Amino acid sequence: MAASAPTPHATGFPAEGRCRYYVAKKKRFCRMVAAAGRRFCGEHAGAAEEENNRKRILCPLDTKHTVYEDQLAKHLKKCNSREKPKPVSLNSTLKDQVMSHPALHDALNDPKNGDSAIKHLKQQASILGNIEKLKLLGPRRCFVEFGAGKGKLSHWVDIALKDAEKVHFILVEKVTTRFKVDGKHRKKDSVFERLQIDIQHLCLSKLHNFQLLYHKS
Fold this sequence. Notes:
Helices cover 23% and strands 14% of the residues. It has helices at residues 72-78, 105-108, 115-133, 152-161, 208-216; strands at residues 22-23, 28-29, 56-58, 66-68, 141-146, 167-173, 190-196. It has a three-stranded parallel beta sheet, with helices on both faces. A two-stranded antiparallel ribbon has the order 1-2. The chain is elongated and about 85 Å long.
């Protein structure tokens, strides 16, 4: 059986395209890649004055690596050892605004509801209550429901608005949904538009009905 060819390191020569600096402590050549036309990698470029007269110094943020002295200022801005900005935390004094809305009164008190249905109704009632508190319930509005599912939230907003004119609902959902409730709404002044699309591909400004409503309001 033929013996395998010796590797460059085994023969005492650096591998092709690798740094030619010999690391005495490790008794081998440096294994870093050298730039095209160069004999040494950036770390050992100072070993050959004929190739590069630029001086490399220890990084003041981490002495485990070096950097060109004339590029120190630029390096310090992107060095992995630089101090990272601390993440901004939410104000711990914020309180949950759990609210309700009379539009869901009967549904919330329906004895036929199970725990899951009550949970979702309470969530929808709280969202609706907060929307009203912010004075966002009214005519000539466009409500966009992301991850709409069956469209229950838009359904309750529409009921709460009663006879408000020129109200547009855009329901966005990535997958096909069964038992949608938005198809039951046939009010003259409410328009329900369902979009089956991933949110990352959605651009509201390009929707025709959204543009009409925005420019008229």
